[in-house]
Amino acid sequence: MTSDNSTPLQTGLLAAFNKSVQQKTVRVGVVGLGYVGLPIALLFSSKGICATGFDIDENKVNLLRQGRTYIKHIPDAEISGALRSGRFQATTDFAELRSMDAIIICVPTPLDDHREPDLTYIQNTAESIARHLRPGQLVVLESTTYPGTTEEVVLPILERAGLRCPVVPYTVENGEPAGADSGGADFMLAFSPEREDPGNPKFKTHQVPKVVGGVNAASALATKNLYEAAFDRIVPVSSSRAAEMTKLLENIYRSVNIAMVNELKLLCQRMGLDIWEIINAAKSKPFGFSAFYPGPGLGGHCIPIDPFYLTWKAREYEFPTRFIELAGEINTSMPHHVVDRLAEALNWRSKCLQGARILVLGISYKKDVDDLRESPSLKIIQLIQERGATVNYNDPYFERLHKMRQYDLGLESVALTAESLSSYDAVVIATDHSSYDYEFIARNAQLLVDTRNATGSLTQYKNKIVQA
Ligand SMILES: NC(=O)c1ccc[n+]([C@@H]2O[C@H](COP(=O)([O-])OP(=O)(O)OC[C@H]3O[C@@H](n4cnc5c(N)ncnc54)[C@H](O)[C@@H]3O)[C@@H](O)[C@H]2O)c1
After folding, report:
1. What angle do CA 127, 309, 38 make, to 5 degrees?
2. Residue 141 CA, ligand 1 centroid: distance in Å
3. CATH of the domain at 62
4. 210 and 329 belong to one structural domain
5. Are residues 314 and 455 in the same domain?
6. Does residue 290 share a domain with residue 398?
7. Could you report the per-residue pLDDT of 409-466, keeping only the tens digit for each?
8. What residues does 361 pair with on adjacent strands?
9. Which of 7, 182, 199, 310 could form a disulfide with 218 if both were Cys (CB 3.0 to 4.6 A apart)?
10. Measured in angstroms, how far is the CA atom of residue 281 from the centroid of ligand 1?
11. What's this model's pTM, rounded to 2 decimal places?
12. How far is the CA of 143 from the centre of ligand 1 (A)?
């Protein structure tokens, strides 16, 4: 609301947009149908709003059109149900963007070979949208990125189409974007970070509060209104930059805390202390302590990558991001530590890593998901191979390891029988999938190197279990 209560925000394009949300006639396009985009498109569709998914990957679009999934935790039935409702479709035809009222961008934001932000996916998507942009549309970027991307990268590309969306500062009062109009915008633009935690059974997409920040108040309000139709709670902030930074704060918080606990694990091992016992004791404190757990290194598309988006941007301000760098250094050293512990454990048994046969359990970057991006398991396998051992792996989510940008391991998942387990000189638990029978594994393995404390309670086998 403006001070004179003349509600310029409620006029024109915003009013029309809000009406379409209210009447559920708003058409939502989601660009990039991966781990983030597909659940969002399905969520809007489940809330009675027509959602169209856009992807350049024809295989994904074809599978979706047949009602078939390619993401383990999204069942076929959810996709076929959405198709039957008539409120979900998938396409590779970007000309259809023109008929959308809101366009949500969920494309990848990786690092390039020099570990710098690779915004080509966002740029390409913005260019596709610009070709079909029309007055009154709302564009929301959800891909994780550095503060300024929406205004400095996406906005200029969209404005090439001749339409305008001025950057106008606004405030948030009582949870509502307020204080200025949209400066006569033709279209609206906002950032809303994605906080999806794939495979987390505790939180469904709609239960995770949605932070939104616009390049002007009208954009923020339109985004808030749209997302209120699908999400339980919206948290508006005063700019797209603030929304971008919020997501990075969350991920840097995780990266730094995981690094700290990883470092303390190394110290505890040297001091003959059990870090897991200590974390469990510390978390009995009802305030001021959040438990983070050590592991074989960071994985996934977010935590190992996103902090470096900020490091890159901070250089523009001559500001060194020391916590981020240090956390990155510690976390990337963890796979090396695991392999050193493995070599040491074999050494105690008068064996050496060179020529040994090693089985690695779990390839996903975290338990119970079918995602191996940046997985430390891949690095561990590569390091063991480099040290002259033969490595096999087992993972219920990956029958074989296809060639990847950094890895070409050429392996297939082996069966987990008593006979096969006992045939390896050592078994490394890299990812603690719930489907593993850890008692069976510990009983049959000659030596078990456990990076996740999956076998912490199996004290009867403690002579052959090494925490790493
Ligand atoms: N996966 C997560 O858990 C997670 C959580 C929070 C945030 N994020 C962020 O969300 C964004 C998307 O991540 P994701 O895991 O869904 O990625 P993903 O790789 O699973 O999916 C991205 C999709 O975008 C498609 N795509 C690429 N370029 C395109 C283009 N020009 N036009 C249309 N489609 C295109 C790809 O084919 C793919 O289907 C990233 O910025 C990521 O950092 C991911």
Report:
1. 55
2. 11
3. 3.40.50.720
4. no
5. yes
6. yes
7. 999 999 999 999 999 999 999 999 999 999 999 999 999 999 999 999 999 999 999 9
8. 394, 429
9. 182
10. 38
11. 0.93
12. 7
